[in-house]
Write a structure and sequence with these properties.
alpha/beta; Rossmann fold; 3 domains; 7-stranded mixed β-sheet; 24 helices; metal-binding
């Protein structure tokens, strides 16, 4: 008999014993074929077809799951339009859950851009037109006062992770309202495929308070509330009721991931609930962790420590300030200096120019720590020439803002690096002289164009490599194809949050952690950076390939869990001796089970 979902991550493993495909009752016949959790399609054996009244409901052939994967992959490759591939994958998820995850896990590099960025952005824009069967839980202003009741309508009882959005800032596309549901659905697919969290333990939620997007409001196929977005007390009360209800219904250890909230709400929600709930904001914290990992890995290519480098950001919203703060925390930790001093190595440019102390009174609270003493500078190119950064990071959400002038300036500033080396020499057998040698090294500018989707990237991989004459260390938020420049092939890295949040979440869940702390994010960054091999560095990569993502996630989960135990925030005791093996043993396996 299939074990009911318990308060653990250990219920989704596959063993060699038969199981019974339970729904509310034993699924059989026509209903079994339409139950995505248990459907196996043509992989039902002859014995299973007899036992579960499937005779005549399927063609006579029996094919294994591996052949089903091959067939579906061939079918997907026939589509020329990414959105068609997305829709086909969503149809598969709604009809055969295990086959969906088997396909995604085994071909993750090819299919990750299909089920998530960049394709998910277009899917959200057209969600009302393409969605066939509602996914996730929709909580609108109509449900105010009865959110607990709405949560109890969800069929699964033992939820371990919720991804929630209000749709106000979907990727770099703005306010998509209720149609932002594609983001929680996509994120949770990756929690399962990349982090091994059981799909039945995942709940996507959209909080619908309206939208200010006139195109959505006038679209006859729009699926959300047709009203302007609620703000102030009305908004705050609805979100608070949701947070209280989630904890009441699912307990202290439920992980709530905030996704694509606008800046003014994202920071406030994270600050408000970080000490009462297990909350994580992927746009602020997840992005920060993955970018820090890439920069730490890049040090192997450019030399020095974090504290030796100067950082300039274009964009000072959730992602930009989140990354900046985590880099400053790591510098502070490694150098034993005050956080305020570590921040002085980091500069931010927003829509009004360089953030400096003379602007402090007019700045939003999350920008104020980055207001350093400096004369005002309006344009990015002037900031680059004056600050002379070694690392340029784009989180602006505005495409092509790393212009040729900007990138060429980065290349010129980082053209040579003088490394002084002291050497003791014996002179006439008696006198020791110190000789200072200056090693002249061609420096590599680090350029990270992180905005999503691809159309919003600050520059392309080809532009970065061409305008720096092949010297740039480049990574982006959405994927770019390899670039050939003067006979050399450069493989651009992708600073994808999917490197971090699935393993991070698994680490929290498997340890029963009750609060998220910055040290856990630093541990995740260090774990990811450690997975980059010399072979990856030789190709100019600062992130490991996604083909190994489950192993990467297991290592991240282990480091996060270890830090949680160290901080006394883990509740699953005793602590396992080998956390990496423990993480791997907890992971969901999408292989079919045998039914009695």
């Amino acid at each position: 008999m299939e074990t009911p979902l318990k308060d653990s991550v250990f219920d989704c493993y596959v063993d060699d014993q038969g199981v019974t495909p339970w729904t509310l009752s034993v699924a059989s016949g026509y209903n079994l074929l339409r139950d995505p959790h248990h459907n196996k399609g043509l992989a039902f054996t002859e014995k299973e077809r007899d036992a579960h009244y499937l005779r005549g409901l399927l063609p006579p052939t029996v094919i294994p799951q591996d052949l089903q994967v091959k067939k579906l992959l061939n079918n997907l490759r026939q589509y020329q339009v990414p959105l068609q591939k997305y829709m086909a994958m969503m149809d598969l998820q709604e009809s055969n859950e295990k086959l969906f995850y088997k396909l995604l896990i085994e071909h993750v590099e090819e299919l990750l851009p299909v089920v998530y960025t960049p394709t998910v952005g277009e899917a959200c824009q057209k969600y009302g037109s393409i969605v066939k069967r509602p996914q996730g839980l929709y909580i609108s202003l109509k449900e105010k006062g009865k959110i607990l009741e709405v949560l109890r309508n969800w069929p699964e009882r033992n939820i371990q992770v919720i991804v929630v959005t209000d749709g106000e800032r979907i990727l770099g596309l703005g306010d998509l309202g209720c149609q932002g549901m594609g983001i929680p659905v996509g994120k949770l697919s990756l929690y399962t495929a990349l982090g091994g969290v059981c799909p039945s333990a995942c709940l996507p939620v959209t909080i619908d308070v309206g939208t200010n997007n006139e195109r959505m409001l006038n679209d006859e196929f729009y699926i959300g509330l047709r009203q302007k977005r609620a703000t102030g007390q009305e908004y705050t009360e609805l979100v608070h009721e949701f947070m209280v209800a989630v904890k009441q219904n699912y307990g202290e250890k439920i992980l709530i991931q905030f996704e694509d909230f606008a800046n003014h709400n994202a920071f406030d929600l994270l600050e408000k609930y970080s000490n009462t709930h297990l909350v994580f904001n992927d746009d602020i914290q997840g992005t920060a962790s993955v970018v820090l990992a890439g920069v730490v890995a890049a040090l192997k290519l450019v030399g020095g420590t974090l504290a030796d480098h100067t950082f300039l950001f274009l964009g000072a919203g959730e992602a930009g300030t989140g990354i900046a703060e985590l880099i400053a925390l790591e510098i502070s930790k490694k150098t034993s200096t005050a956080l305020e001093d570590a921040r002085k190595k980091i500069w931010l440019v927003d829509s009004k120019g360089l953030i400096v102390s003379s602007r402090k009174e007019s700045l939003q609270h999350f920008k104020k720590p980055w207001a350093h003493e400096h004369e005002p500078i309006k344009d990015l190119i002037d900031a680059v020439k004056d600050i002379k950064p070694t690392v340029l990071i784009g989180t602006s959400g505005v495409g092509r803002t790393f212009t040729k002038d900007v990138v060429e300036a980065m290349a010129a500033i980082n053209e040579v690096f003088y490394l002084p080396t002291c050497v003791l020499c014996r002179f006439k057998r008696e006198i020791m002289l110190t000789v200072i040698l200056l090693w002249i090294i061609l420096q590599k500018p680090i350029i990270l164009a992180l905005s999503n989707p691809t159309s919003q990237s600050e520059c392309t991989a080809e532009e970065a490599y061409t305008w720096t004459e092949g010297r740039a260390i480049f990574a982006s938020g959405s994927p770019f194809d390899p670039v050939e420049y003067e006979g050399n092939v450069f493989v651009p890295g992708q600073a994808n949050n999917a490197y971090i949040f699935p393993g991070f979440g698994l680490g929290l869940i498997m340890s029963g952690t009750i609060r998220v702390r910055d040290d856990m994010l630093l541990a995740a960054s260090e774990a990811l950076a450690a997975q980059v091999t010399q072979e990856n560095f030789d190709k100019g990569l600062i992130y490991p390939p996604f083909t190994n993502i489950r192993k990467i996630s297991a290592n991240i989960a282990a480091k996060v869990a270890a830090k949680a135990y160290e901080l006394g925030l883990a509740t699953r005791l005793p602590q396992p001796e080998d956390l990496v093996n423990h993480a791997e043993s907890c992971m969901y396996n999408p292989s079919y089970q045998n039914y009695r």
